[in-house]
Amino acid sequence: REALMATDAIPGDLDRLFPICTPGASDSAGFDEALELLTMGGYSLPEAILMMIPEPWENHGEMSDQRRAFYQYHASLMEPWDGPASIAFTDGTVMGAVLDRNGLRPSRYWVTADDLVVMASEVGVVEVPTSEVVEKGRLQPGRMFLIDTAEGRIIRDDEIKDGMASGRPYRKWLDQNLVHLDDLPLYDCPTIGESALLEHQQVYGYTHEALKVLLAPMARDGKGAIGSMGTDTPVAVLSNQPRPLYDYFQQLFAQVTNPPLDAMREELITALGTTVGAEGNLLAPGPESCHQIHLPHPVLTEGQMASIIGLGDDSVTAGPSRFSVRVLDGRYEVARGARGLTEALDRLRSEASDSIDDGITMLVLSDRSPTAAMAPIPSLLATGAVHHHLIREKTRARVGLLVESGDAREVHHVGLLLGYGASAVCPYLAFASVDAMVAEGMYGLSPDLTAE
What is an annotated GO biological process for this record, any one (predicted)? Predict the structure, then answer.
């Protein structure tokens, strides 16, 4: 985002501050440096904290619309920082603390009659006579504890957030600029014929086991299949069988007592929504910064992807303005072997840069229509190549990156694509495979199932 930054609040050339986050520094150091930039750029310290660590607002049914608009707008500027941590902050005048949005670290505070405030991870860190304590409590997830030493008072959470939310017309900006996926025009999406489906599945490495054990349970239950914690398959690098590139990105870990956050069982503090499109100037908030498309989920159906791709059709006049989309061919020439793959990756990088220069705001990497002469580039390889190329050129924030993938079919696959730079993924062959199983009544799949 550095290339998009501009502000009069910081005198001189901003280039002298880059990179904002010191390479090789800790996560905490990077957070501190980003927070310092925001405060130097004109944000108040509490506002910058709320931008970086917003409370879980997406599924909060009792939150005011004004406060929700504040968080939704800033979600288009930067991603939330999840922690886990209890963070204390000060600029010399105000000081405070906030928990990560999941509340995975404790913080307790005491206030005494002589205006001493003690906050620590546990009670008893500092010895304070209980007779002098006039208030005590714990810092709750999403809540901010703030002291203004100039005014000599504790500022309560509602006062802080209501003041921030009313500072700019966030709801008006969102209503005028943020486009929701369901509002896009509908377009016909390409289909894979019954005769060609098996050929596609073979090209992308599908197996009978993948259809029965992975895809069918996901389609039937609406969640990833649950299996044993162990696996008897060799690691990909030692396997004698061809393995998808995704299989090389796994690691051993200790489960201990920390289960993963679950979007279904912990719906209040988790959300899957995201926005896609060009970003704005982080240091100059304005209505144009939220001119993006809101996606309720990072996995797109074929119809939803067709609606987004359709925005790039010059013959179409209906629909949201100022969105421009270009599809990049994610295939390479088989006859040229490894050299052909390298050349195709170079071509993708070059086409991505040229597209940004042409004013394109969304790129779609698509490996559709494989042939004997043109094989698909592994989606993870293509995504990482384009994403990191644009980061090096400091143009990544000027474009959204979507992936239309035939090889992605597992939760792990989609997670990797998102982690390596994709804003959203359309696993079109997985949907086509499920449609075929539904049509044939295989593995107990109901004929009423749809991609949605």
Answer: ammonia assimilation cycle
Hey, where are the domains in the chain?
43-171, 179-444
Residue 89's nearest CA partner among 122, 51, 63 is: 51
Query: What is each CA distance from 58 to 75, 172, 173, 267, 280, in whole angstroms?
Result: 11, 18, 18, 9, 22
In b/e form, how buried is each residue of 357-395, taking b as 16+ CB within 10 angstroms?
A: eeebbbbbbbbbebeeebbbbbbbbbbbbbbebbeeeeb
Q: What angle do CA 209, 212, 218 make, to 5 degrees?
A: 120
Largest CA distance in the chain: 83
- Alpha-carbon torsion (81, 85, 91, 93), positive or negative: positive
Residue closest to 130 by CA, chosen among 107, 154, 111, 106: 111
Q: How does pLDDT run along the chain (452 residues), one tens digit per residue?
A: 888 888 888 888 888 888 888 889 888 898 999 999 999 998 999 999 999 999 888 888 888 999 999 999 999 998 888 777 888 999 999 999 998 877 778 889 999 999 899 998 888 888 888 899 999 888 888 889 999 999 999 999 999 999 999 989 999 999 999 999 988 888 888 888 888 999 999 999 999 888 988 898 888 887 777 765 556 677 888 888 888 999 998 876 655 566 666 767 777 778 888 999 999 899 989 998 999 999 999 999 999 999 999 887 654 444 445 788 999 999 999 999 999 999 999 999 999 999 999 999 999 999 999 999 999 999 999 999 999 999 999 999 999 999 999 999 999 999 999 999 999 999 999 999 999 998 888 887 877 777 66
Predicted structure pTM score: 0.89
